[in-house]
Amino acid sequence: MAQNGGGAVVLVTKDANLRIKAGAIGVEAQEYRRELVEIQELYTGQINLEVSPETIDDFYASKQLEAAGAVFDDVELYPNQLVILTAGKQSAVGRTHHEKNRLVLKPLVKHTFNYSIQPKNIEQEFALELLMDPKIDLVTLADSAGTGKTLLALMAGMELVVQQDRFSRLLVSRPVIPMGKDIGFLPGSVDEKMSVWLKPFKDNLEHLLDFDGRHTDSIDHLFEDGIIEVGVLSYIRGRSIPNQFILIDECQNLERSSIKSVLTRVGANSRACLTGDLSQIDHPLLDTVTNGLTHVIESLKEEPSVGHITLTKGVRSNLATLIAERL
Question: Half-sphere exposure of 219 toward its Cβ, with a 13 Å CA cutoff?
Answer without folding.
Answer: 21
